[in-house]
Amino acid sequence: MEKEEFIRIKEWPTEYAQGAYNQGNYIEAIQVLHGFIETKLQELLILEGSKSNDMEEIWDIANQISLTNCVKVLFIIGEITKREYQDIIFFNKIRNQIVHGLFHDTYEHGVRGVSRKKFDIAFDKGMDLCDNLQRKGEMKIEKKNTL
């Protein structure tokens, strides 16, 4: 029987994303940031709201909640600030424009792609969000451990 191979990132996601960016792998870079931000939001949701003893079920359910829905719930319950909410929504909007804009074929110009300036803004915002959400989660864990 052949052993199954798994594809995974073996370094910290922001370091991996920066390396992908530096090598010109822009879509890979933005997708890694998006995935990490979504995961951190899901973790915050679990840390904030889980009153259930069945953490496996809660974990599985939370991992099905999209970035957009997570950020809305976290804002509504006061776990993230309005500024954090706006920054995450902005990042997601630009990320969607980047990923989907690559395939947008205009009538007059064909596929133009996405402006490098717009990409750089989203990438920098994403890097900051990753760090901020990681810190927020760590602080929440520390707080729960001291109770």
Could you outline the blueprint of secondary structure elements for this entry?
Layout: H1 13-22, H2 26-49, H3 55-62, H4 67-76, H5 82-101, E1 105-106, E2 110-111, H6 116-146
Antiparallel strand pairs: 1-2
Helix pairs in contact: 1-2, 2-4, 2-5, 2-6, 4-5, 5-6
Keywords summarizing the entry:
mainly alpha, 3% strand, globular, 70% helix, 6 helices, 147 residues, single chain, 2 strands, two-stranded antiparallel sheet
- Give the mean pLDDT: 88
Radius of gyration: 17 Å
User: How do the strands line up in the largest sheet?
Assistant: 1-2
State the helix count. Answer: 6
Cα-to-Cα separation, first versus last residue: 48 Å
Please indicate the percent range of residues in DSSP E strands (runs of 2 or more): under 5%
Approximate shape: globular
Q: How many individual β-strands?
A: 2
